[in-house]
Amino acid sequence: MQECGPTECLAKLGRVLCECAAHVEARSLEKATLCLARSTGLAAAAGVGPLQRLSVPMADCLARCLLRPIPAIADALIDTSEYLDRRCVRAARRSFFDLSPFPKVAVAVGNRAILEAVENEKNVHVIDFAGPAAQPCQWFQLLRDFHSRPGGPPHLRLTVVHDDGEFLAKMSQLLADVAGELDMAFQFHYVFGQLESLDLDDLHRILKLRSGEARAIFCTLQLHRLLAVAGDDDTCSGAAANHFEQMESVARLQQMASRSSSSCPPAGVTCEEYDLYSSPATPMSFVSPPASTPHNFQTMPPPLAGFLSAARALSPKIVVVTEQDASHNGVSFRKRFAEALGYYGALYDSLDAAAAAYRRPAAERAEVERAVLGEEIRGVLLHEGARRRERHDRLPQWAARMELAGFRNVPLSYMALRQGNDMVTRCGLRGCDSREHGGCLLLCWRSCPLYSVSAWRPDRGSQSQLIGSSSSEFICANGGSVEGE
Predict the structure, then answer these.
(1) How many C-beta atoms lie closer than 10 Å to residue 248's C-beta?
(2) Tens of pLDDT, residues 382-425
């Protein structure tokens, strides 16, 4: 391989990875193997940086997908996900919350939306379906906000759906301590299990709903897991012709590579709506974004349809939805890979800048990349059909699904948006930005949207257009949820 400088090697690295993804989709073993070998050399020559680190899990996924048709080899590979210690994953998720400004901003905006929705209510029940994304500090702040509410705090009940018993026990104790310090009437309940395993026919009993309470629902980075359907696992088939049409000028990537990851974006660059890949400051910007896979919303995936129908039946005052803003729900492996390369390139870049700005140990950032983002990447690229749970999608697609399910958008208030913008400013990272979009919030890194925050409530003037009239038609397998206080 002809020698190249770090900047040129970095630009070539992205192109070679995309070329390899096309060969994997076409099931061209020899060509894909050659591309993987080239990518290894280019990654070594590109130096140490966020995109070079990202190439490691991306190349690993390519290799595993390539070997999938050879069971004797594929079955012998070690599945690193099975050896992740739950405590390490829990610590990595907390580090991600501390390092990245995006989850903190999403939490603050969501809390503000809930406070406003139940402003005058005396009995409030908050239901958290965040699962692994849940963090106790979110509820510490909500307790304090309710405590300082004019007219006094409500009687607050919090129900959390989670599958980590140790985490739930610690959360319960911490929240009880905070509520005791504030002298607030507070009750904590949990449902042991995962969102996709809930018995939706028995949700009222499982959540211990009571009459006369105002309900608010949090869905943080979980609804995309309900988009999984069987029968779309033929994603590595199809022609790979014209895949180079997805590549633009390498000069864009060279500009990005020659710039320090913590430097500010070019003058005038803001978080333009869905301007991913159009800015020279966007990591992996040489990849042209695939459009979101068109959905037939009249045949919404049964798990999601069932959950939204059940959620609407709870008559919540508000439903706050936070999701990754990316097109990872498509069938084409090549397009999904290209989208993931751009999305996680921006996310790795933002973590790199945050770790440097906050003087956090490199090992902490590396653990987040391994145990949190690396596992997301594996979920996006390695699994197919009903096993593929990481099916991130764009805000317009989520809005269409919510409206079809009988919800209407609750525009985020000026105060909620201002609070989010203030937090973005205080984080001190010049690449971090936010933008109001149709009453919702997009959280961005160097003009690349990474997360969306939106609020919804049941539209009493419309009927759900989901197929079927009984939630029993949409239920996933019953996970045998257990409750506790």
Answers:
(1) 14
(2) 988 888 999 999 999 999 999 999 999 999 999 999 999 999 99
**φ, ψ dihedrals at 160, nearest 5°:** -120, 130
**For the chain, which residues make up each domain, given as ranges?**
6-89+229-248+329-387, 98-228+295-327+392-484
- Specify whether the CB–CB gap between 172 and 443 falls below 8 A: no
DSSP alpha helices (H): ranges in 49-159? 50-67, 71-74, 86-99, 101-117, 136-147
The answer to whether 305 touches 474, Cβ cutoff 8 Å, is: yes
Residue-wise pLDDT for 148-204, tens only, equals 999 899 999 999 999 998 999 999 999 999 999 999 999 999 999 999 899 999 999
User: Which residue's structure tokens are 């949700």?
Assistant: 203
How far apart (Å, rounded) are the C-alpha atoms in residues 275 and 7?
24
Strand positions, DSSP E, 173-307: 186-192, 214-220
3-class SS at 239? Answer: coil
CATH architecture for residues 98-228+295-327+392-484 = 3-Layer(aba) Sandwich (3.40)
Please check whether residue 395 is in contact with residue 454, taking contact to mean a CB–CB distance below 8 angstroms. Answer: yes
Q: What percent of the chain has pLDDT over 90?
A: 65
| Model pLDDT for residues 134-158, shown as the tens digit of each residue | 889 999 999 999 999 998 999 999 9
Q: CA–CA separation, 55 vs 271, rounded Å?
A: 25
Q: How far apart are CA 164 and CA 90, in angstroms?
A: 9
Cα–Cα dist 21/42, whole Å = 16
Q: How many CB atoms lie within 10 A of CB 297?
A: 15
